[in-house]
Amino acid sequence: MTDPARTPTSPARFGLTETRSGELLRAAGWWDGRRPSDGNEPILWSLSRSPDPDLALLGVDRVREALGDRWAALDEALRTNDVLRGRLLAVLGSSTALSDFLAANPDRWTLLADAEPVSAESFAPALVAAVDGLTGADAVRALKIEYRALLCRIAAEDLAHVAEPDLRYVSYDDVAGLLSDLAVAALRAALDVAYREVPRADECTLAVIAMGKCGARELNYVSDVDVVFVGEGDTGVATRLASTMMQVAGQACFEVDAALRPEGKAGALVRTLDGHASYYRRWARTWEFQALLKARPVAGDAELGQRYLDVVGPMVWTAAEREDFVPDVQAMRRRVEDNVPVGLADRELKLGRGGLRDVEFAVQLLQLVHGRGDEELRIPTTTAALAALGRGGYVGRTDAADFGRAYRFLRTLEHRLQLQKLLRTHLFPADDDAACLRWLARASGLQAEGGLSEAQVLLAEFRKRANQVRRLHEKLFYRPLLQAVANVPTEALRLTTTEAENRLAALGYAAPDGALKHIEALTRGVSRRARIQSALLPVLLDLLAETPDPDGGLLAYRRVSEALAETPWYLRLLRDEGTVVDRLAALLGTSRLVPDLLVRAPEVLRLLADTDGLVGRDPMTIGNPLRSTVSRYNDLDRAVTAARSLRRQELLRIASGDLLGLVTLRTVCVSLSEVWVAVLQAALDAVVRTTGERQASIAVIGMGRIGGRELGYGSDADVVFVCEAAPGVTDSDAVRYASAVVEKVRRLLSAPSQDPALQVDADLRPEGRQGPLVRTLESYRAYYAQWAELWEAQALLRARFIAGDADLGARFMDLVEPVRYPAAGLDAASVREIRRIKARVEAERLPRGADPSLHTKLGRGGLADVEWTVQLLQLQHAHEVPALRTPSTVRGLRAAAEAGLMTRDDMVALKESWITATRARNAIVLVRGKPGDQLPTTGRDLAAVAGVMGHSRDPGEFLDAYRRTTRRARAVIERVFYGS
Known about the structure:
GO terms for molecular function: [glutamate-ammonia-ligase] adenylyltransferase activity; [glutamine synthetase]-adenylyl-L-tyrosine phosphorylase activity; ATP binding; ligase activity; magnesium ion binding. By secondary structure, this protein is mainly α. Helices cover 59% and strands 5% of the residues. It is elongated. The N and C termini lie far apart (120 Å).
């Protein structure tokens, strides 16, 4: 029984708007003027779901008139056969061209009634049979009708689910494959006709090679079919045969384009196999190898066609080695895009930004670069190749899926637009063409949703997919890693061969067999991870070969990769960000400190792609996030663990920027100092929070390098502690409480760890190691007034409040001001005493066997020489030269020169020496992964330190330059410090 709610009162209920629609429905016998005629309601509901119900109804009327008395059979079939109903009404509502065909050949409707899916195997027999024995116009006419009938059959299956949602959905890939197979069948039928028309055709052998979309089995409804011909025997006859085939197919089915042949339209239509081979070896340009990617023998002599592939195929997979291959392909895509008319660029489905060519060029470039070493990528079809790139890890899974969906969507739109009039078009409708947008949306299976019309849904989806394509195209097509991979010789991509071992030796790997073991471990198996590593390693091996320690770098890369094996973004980052690969290789092949930190702070790896994120932070505020984060933890162990973790991240970030030459020495030293201060402050706050009642205020005074903000990677934190009793608490209880807190802080920070040590050194306190760890402010006042020694005044020159109670710290600094800057300067005896102490340090503390000319701290012209010189001048003159009152060595030097205490040339010599020694000392830690003051004199450590110092080409020149710089400084020190 018919549902009254669905009973229409007019044709408009079925989406019909034409004034003649009621008349046409009555003529078909489907409507009596008030409601559907008996049994016809399913037809009308299918009609209403057609992309254009009015167009479909008009097509039905034309077919009805053409059938005449035979209409009854079709009418009955439409009532009972939902397959026929969905196919016919969808085709008639989508394509005026196919409607014309069915009106001219009305009995062909029976092709659409077969419930079985169309079989590509039937195409060639049907088309060849249609032209059997025919030539000339008769053959063209017969081929045209049979080709159009089969095209209609494919379109019917493609569209049927639109009108009848329960019918089978045919994917874009299947439709494109069927269209390609139909084109191949048409070429074979046309060649069959040509063999009958061309005299002496048996005196030659001809093979037809499909190129482009036909070769890749991704043809459109309307498209040129690109071909190349290869012949043997009489090439003149073969040329006439090929030309005739092109004419027959062109008049009956589609244009056959042979412009992709060697030398293009100016070249011979048919060449021998040797002629093709010679051309591609000597003259072919980059784009011609790109075109060969889709070559496929489809007609004529199969054996000759296969031999053609055997000859040119290997050339395709070495094309990426050509000079400037990647830039050539990228430039070609830009030229194609530049030729799109400006007003149509956003609507051009094929050539515009975010169009089909964006996908195809990106996929083909990735294939040609990576397919040299991975045969699974040697697939001509775009969607299948994209899936293989995703499986192999050359493209991220999400990116591959998004790219594939967007490509299929755009190709489906292209198919629907071409079906409408069977014209070659790639132009998306204008935004204001509502009727066309609605028709295209419905033909593509889109429905109104969320208050949006079909046209609005289509526009939103089109823009989303086009933007998605463009974003992914720019990400993949211009990926810096592509050029690096392309630069690796093809044989080097096969990493486990003997040739690879020889290549590793040639690149400078000291232990090629060991390197191969690392490579094997990283690429073992068939996992996605192994595939990505296989793509990355050839590039990394070349990059590491340019570093001071390729073997150590490769080992470090293996360690990092194994440690981060379960980190989902790690390999994806390396694959997608060429800058990261370049920088990581430079770091791993130079430093042993970086990989140790990296396995425990992998998040810093992301910053290698972002220079501003890596080095753009203000060093004076670098510790704020650390202090803020740690302050959230009430549990002491968790607080200290968080502080260590954040310090590790910052240390790795600073070291990476330093090694890559992206930051100044001052930035490095200030950053390291402020991170240390933040850790100390955070640990002190955490201990105080968890200790119970606060019995004293505590201030931490930075001394030495941390006081001067001159900390290096291997420096301890020299500090002294001062406390002040809380109200109602005795000084002895306050000192006891503060000492317990300080001891706990030192114990927590110095606990065993894989990170660089966090050693809090309080040996510069009054009385040194024999003195109490913590004193009250008044105790310091009394001690400095009565007992302070000259070395203690000198140590206070770099004192600076760094943590704890700021008011107490400020009062301590006021207290020590007259101690470190004595009002009368130094008398001659004190100067002699400082010189004596310095000479004793040189004689006794320089390690046995150390080279004084290469010891960065205690050697001639080293750090101690410069710093003692500045400190002597401060003790002598700071009472009258306020600018000398600074904990900074460099600022002290500058102030001394400005005050006339040394010449500008002397200041420059000392400054250069101090900076050189500081950088060298930092480089030693970065390279060796542990503190050290003695510069290496041979081997890869020397090469690495020299590289960090900017002397990568000649490590010996670095040592000479270091000695020259420090020697000049020592001469100044002999005059200024020792008074010689």
